[in-house]
Design goal:
452 residues, nine-stranded mixed beta sheet, five-stranded parallel beta sheet, 10 helices, 18 strands, elongated
Length: 452
């Protein structure tokens, strides 16, 4: 159906043209059927025939004016496009080529446009996954140095783009419409362009961390920080250790002797290795899974920015191979690009980086099956911090049913319809049960756990 609607959008005839044609033909047929056999040439018959003739001529004149005004503007843009190497169209989201996912201002800027007399110029954006945007009316002039000379024309409207990823624009289609909207001449412009939607900022949270040194410490800080203090870090009991520092609670649970490490003052900045995991298994349909992925990315950004507010240097380590960002010179853009372009993955070797490392900060989703937990976190030390994101919480703030819609028309959030599908999903109970099991497992480990 999407392809059919796409191809129908290239028809040069608008709905108004067919309506006018039907009404005119119907009126002419009615007059001919009722009055064509009359022999008497009364004034009424003559006047009626003259009126029909006048209507036919006026219709032809209107159609001709509408046709040629739109066609001339289309031909002018065709000549302009052939004489310029650069693309006359530029697509934007938000204030540029990057914006937070959700309701985003989608814009289109075009040069070399002459609007038809009292007509309109509209545009649609075609993405690589065959998605077509809503029609954008180019009605806002852009002036250069002179306030009287228009250099371009642009359009913009808020659209719902929930998926957090890199969107590839394949082309844009311009439609030159006449004043009566009888004709619409399309013009396709190839416009390979990439637009990035990033996770939206959410409420700030605090994450208490005290990492080990993960890299050589060369950056000295002004105020020495406390590191490896009591109740924070432990190590196995060795000969010469103070037996008063033995943690008997851990011994009673695991039969291993560990001691508290005395607190010291470290004058160097430590590094945090942040490991977000997108490992999961196929439990739900693609649309529900994509919505949960978007929610998971928002939570990861919330945690990562909380780590950035600490005095430690934070390094984002993705669990999958990603294309390099175009603006890698900006450190913030690099990690945000890697987060935004990550996808759910189920490759077993991609999770080895979690199981092989003993320490660090890990962020996992509740879509990881319970039977994978022990393999991933069996060798973690008390220095490890695991952050669990319960992706089913996405649906808590959504309303599946709006009772007010029975009495009045209400605007429904796009996620509300997905919540109804979530409530009817046969895998919902399985996911919620898995979340509870994972949470109980993590809370029973020696390392620290944060539940979001």
């Amino acid at each position: 159906m999407k392809k059919l609607a796409y191809y129908f959008s290239f028809l040069p005839f608008q709905l108004n043209f067919f309506v006018l044609l039907f009404v005119t033909a119907g009126a002419y047929a009615l007059v001919q059927n009722k009055y064509s056999n009359l022999q008497e040439q009364t004034y009424f018959i003559l006047l009626l025939r003259a009126l029909v003739m006048f209507t036919a001529v006026l219709f032809m004149l209107m159609v001709g004016i509408a046709f040629f005004t739109a066609l001339i503007c289309w031909l002018y843009f065709w000549v302009y496009r052939r004489s310029h190497k650069e693309s006359p169209l530029q697509v934007s989201i938000g204030d540029g080529d990057k914006a937070e996912a959700g309701y985003i201002s989608l814009g289109l800027l075009a040069t070399g446009i002459i609007k038809p007399l009292l007509g309109h110029v509209k545009g649609r954006i075609v993405f690589a996954d065959n998605r077509i945007s809503a029609a954008l009316t180019l009605d806002e002039p852009v002036f250069g140095k002179s306030p009287l000379i228009r250099t371009a024309i642009k359009a913009g409207r808020p659209v719902w783009i929930p998926d957090i990823k890199e969107h590839e624009v394949q082309k844009a289609v311009l439609y030159f419409e006449d004043m009566f909207r009888l004709f619409s001449f399309p013009f396709v412009v190839s416009n390979i362009q990439k637009l990035l939607t990033v996770p939206a900022r959410s409420e700030a949270i605090a994450v208490d961390v005290n990492p080990d040194k993960t890299q050589d410490q060369t950056q000295r800080i002004q105020t020495p920080r406390k590191t490896r203090g009591e109740l924070l870090n432990y190590k196995n009991f060795e000969a010469g250790d103070d037996i008063r520092r033995i943690v008997w609670k851990i011994y009673a649970k695991s039969r291993e002797l560990v001691v508290k490490i005395p607190e010291t003052m470290d004058p160097y900045a430590s590094h945090i290795h942040f490991h977000p995991s997108f490992y999961t298994s196929t439990m739900v349909s693609d649309d529900l899974k994509n919505a949960m992925l978007n929610y998971y990315k928002i939570r990861i950004r919330q945690v990562y920015e909380a780590l950035l507010r600490t005095e430690f240097a934070v390094k984002y380590i993705p669990d999958q191979e990603l294309a390099a960002a175009d603006d890698t010179h900006e450190e913030e853009a690099t990690w945000l690009y890697e987060l935004s372009t990550s996808v759910w993955q189920s490759a077993k070797d991609a999770t080895d980086y979690m199981a092989s490392r003993r320490e660090g900060i890990y962020c996992i989703s509740s879509l990881i099956p319970m039977f994978e937990m022990e393999e991933l976190f069996s060798n973690k030390t008390p220095d490890t911090l695991v952050i669990l994101v319960k992706v089913s919480d996405l649906w808590q703030n959504q309303q599946a049913f709006h009772w007010t819609s029975l009495f009045m028309k209400t605007d429904e959030h796009p996620l509300d319809a997905l919540k109804r599908k979530w409530l009817l999903s046969p895998h919902r109970r399985k996911i919620i049960t898995n979340e509870k099991q994972v949470q109980q497992y993590l809370e029973g480990q020696l390392f620290r756990t944060i539940i979001l």
